Structure formats: structure tokens, C-alpha cells
């Protein structure tokens, strides 16, 4: 191989590693600064225990080599809140029989609400569609044709689904059409399809608080 080509390849590899190191360094510093400003605890280390503790959330109960990292925990506007990135692996085999590993990284943001509820999923149509197949729940339709076209709603408790997806909730979610959420027990969680970034924390937490505020009061008087 041409020596010049070797040098260029080595330089390109070094540049990739350098920019990756810079990205992860800046990202971690951003989490540390946000945690300090909001009185949250921050742990950058990998944790399999956290994933097991929250494995009732269906998206955290698939694949292999599961772990959470960049974990933040604290109180946000009166609610216990968790935020972290979750990793899991799936596998595929090509035509030559070679197995390929696929690494998935999800942003997870969750709050504990006042009381437990049956399981409920709301997600954009086509988003995490395998969850619905796994659960075996039918997609629930609503009077709002636009909402029913934009979102897949699944729950074993249809009354809860209709109560949760009231007019105000549907109007709000139609303004935030990338929302993918799960209500399970007393945990209300949002999913993102990539690593959680420091500048997303305030938006997602405020998004969760708004969703909680749109749940009817009578649901909490039972």
C-alpha cells in the first residue's frame, strides 16, 4: 500500500477518534452542569441494575447486553424524575451467514406520578411498532380522526385510554407528534430514538409535566 495512503488513513482514523472524544467530553460536561444547576444526581457509569429495575417499561425489556448510562435522578417540579440513555443489542445475519451486532441507544425520561395505572402506550404510527405486536393490544381509535391517524394508542384498559386521551391531551399531542410515551404503574415515561443530550432535558421534563397536567383530576380520585 502506498505510504501516503497509509498516512492519510491513519490521520482520518485519528480525526474520528478525536472528534468522538470531544463530543463525549462535551456531552458529559453538559450533564454535569445541568445536574448541578437543577440539584440532580448524575452517574455516567453503566448500570444493568437500573435497567432491571425499570424493565416493566416494555422498550427496556428487549434485546441483549442491556444497560443504562449517563443517569440523572432528582426532583423536578415536585415529581421524582429519572433520565438516562439505554443501550441494548440485536443481531442479524447476512447472506453469507455472518452475524452482525446492532447497537441501539434510547433516551428515556420518566417521572413518578401520584398513583399507579394500568399499562398504556401512545406513540406515533409506525414508531416502535413491535411493542404493539409484543403486547397483543389492538390499536384504539378515537373520535378525532387526525389523532387516530397520527398516533397508535394501546392499552388493555380502553376506558383509561379514552380518559387519558381527552380533547386537551389530543390537541397537545398533535402539536408534539414525535411523542412516544408509556404509562405503567406510577411511572410516566417518554422515549427518544437516540442518546439523550443535555440540552434536551428541560424540554422533555417540561413535556412530561404538561402531559401529567392534562390527565383529568378524576383519575386521581379513585
Explain the layout of strands and helices.
Layout: H1 3-38, E1 41-43, H2 48-53, E2 64-76, E3 79-93, E4 99-124, H3 129-135, H4 145-150, E5 151-155, H5 158-164, H6 167-174, E6 181-192, H7 201-213
Antiparallel strand pairs: 1-2, 2-3, 3-4, 4-5, 4-6
In short:
The protein is of the alpha+beta class and 222 residues long.
What does this structure look like?
- The chain has 222 residues and is α+β, with helices and mostly antiparallel strands.
- The chain contains seven helices and six strands; from the N terminus they run H-E-H-E-E-E-H-H-E-H-H-E-H.
- Strands 1, 2, 3, 4, 5 and 6 form a six-stranded antiparallel beta sheet that branches.
- A hairpin with a 5-residue loop joins strand 3 and strand 4.
Descriptive tags:
222 residues, 7 helices, globular, 6 strands, 2 domains, alpha+beta
Q: What is the count of DSSP helices, taking H or I runs of 4+ residues?
A: 7
Alpha-carbon distance between the two ends = 74 Å
Low-confidence stretches: 130-134
- Helix percent reads 25-40%
**Radius of gyration from the alpha-carbon trace, in angstroms:** 20 Å
Q: How many individual β-strands?
A: 6
What is the strand content? Answer: 25-35%
User: How many domains is the backbone divided into?
Assistant: 2
Structural class: alpha+beta
Secondary-structure element series: HEHEEEHHEHHEH
Q: What does the largest sheet look like?
A: 6 strands, antiparallel
Shape: globular
Average pLDDT number: 85
Amino acid at each position: 500500500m502506498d505510504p501516503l495512503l497509509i498516512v492519510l488513513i491513519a490521520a482520518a482514523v485519528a480525526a474520528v477518534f478525536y472528534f468522538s472524544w470531544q463530543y463525549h467530553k462535551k456531552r458529559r460536561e453538559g450533564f454535569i452542569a445541568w445536574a448541578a444547576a437543577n440539584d440532580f444526581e448524575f452517574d455516567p457509569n453503566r448500570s444493568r441494575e437500573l435497567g432491571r429495575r425499570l424493565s416493566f417499561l416494555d422498550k427496556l425489556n428487549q434485546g441483549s447486553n442491556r444497560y443504562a448510562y449517563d443517569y440523572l435522578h432528582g426532583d423536578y417540579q415536585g415529581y421524582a424524575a429519572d433520565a438516562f440513555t439505554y443501550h441494548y443489542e440485536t443481531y442479524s445475519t447476512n447472506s453469507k451467514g455472518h452475524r452482525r451486532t446492532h447497537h441501539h441507544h434510547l433516551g428515556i425520561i420518566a417521572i413518578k406520578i401520584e398513583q399507579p395505572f394500568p399499562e398504556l402506550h401512545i406513540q406515533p404510527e409506525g414508531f416502535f411498532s413491535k411493542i404493539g405486536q409484543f403486547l397483543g393490544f389492538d390499536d384504539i381509535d378515537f373520535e378525532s380522526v387526525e389523532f387516530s391517524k397520527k398516533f397508535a394508542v394501546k392499552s388493555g384498559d380502553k376506558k383509561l385510554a379514552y380518559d387519558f386521551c381527552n380533547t386537551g391531551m389530543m390537541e397537545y399531542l398533535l402539536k408534539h407528534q414525535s411523542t412516544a410515551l408509556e404509562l405503567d404503574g406510577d411511572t410516566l415515561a417518554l422515549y427518544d430514538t437516540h442518546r439523550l443530550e443535555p440540552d434536551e432535558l428541560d424540554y422533555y421534563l417540561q413535556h412530561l409535566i404538561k402531559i401529567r397536567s392534562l390527565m383529568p383530576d378524576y383519575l386521581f380520585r379513585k
